[in-house]
Each structure stands twice: as C-alpha cells, then as structure tokens.
Amino acid sequence: MTPARSSRIRSVAKAITWRALGSLDTFVIAFIVTGEAKFGAAIAGTEAFTKIVLYYFHERGWSHIKWGTLKID
Questions:
Q1: Taking the CB of residue 13, how many other CB atoms lie within 10 A of it?
Q2: Rounded-to-integer distance, Cα 28 and Cα 40, Å
C-alpha cells in the first residue's frame, strides 16, 4: 500500500471536530459536576484524562477515512 500524508484541509477538519468533541466533553462533565469553584480541580483532572481517551478513539476513527489524504510518490 502506498503511504499517504494528510492535506492541510484534512488537518483543519480534524482540529475542528476534535475541539467540538472536547467542548462537548467539557460541557457534560461541568453539567454533571456542579459549577462550584471547589469542583474546578475535579473537572480539570477528569477532562484531561477523558480527552486523552477520546482523542485516541477520534484518531483511530479518522484513520479509516480516506477523504483528504494524499498519496506520496
């Protein structure tokens, strides 16, 4: 199989979808955990962990999408 690299537009699309997924994650966590300041550390710690997991699955999903990839000669 010929190796491929991502186009710039693909990178932008991935950045936008990743940020949207991350923002949704933050909203859900903030909704579940109250808005009180003492929970800020809990939200930040949880968010850091969950975004790492979500990013892994996000990247794995994108690896199956051929749109925006370029063949390297």
A1: 16
A2: 14
Question: Phi, psi (5° rounding) for residue 6?
Answer: -85, 140
* pLDDT above 60 (res 1): no
> Dihedral of the CA atoms 56, 62, 68, 73 (nearest 10)?
70
In angstroms, the CA 36 to CA 33 distance is 8
**Contact of 7 with 62, CB cutoff 8 Å:** no
Q: Which two tokens stand for residue 3?
A: 């190796």
Q: What is the pTM of this model?
A: 0.59
User: pLDDT digits over 3-37, tens only?
Assistant: 677 788 888 888 888 888 898 888 888 888 887 75
pLDDT of residue 3: 64
Structure tokens that stand for 65 in this block: 């999408």
Q: What's the CA gap between 39 and 37, in Å, rounded?
A: 5
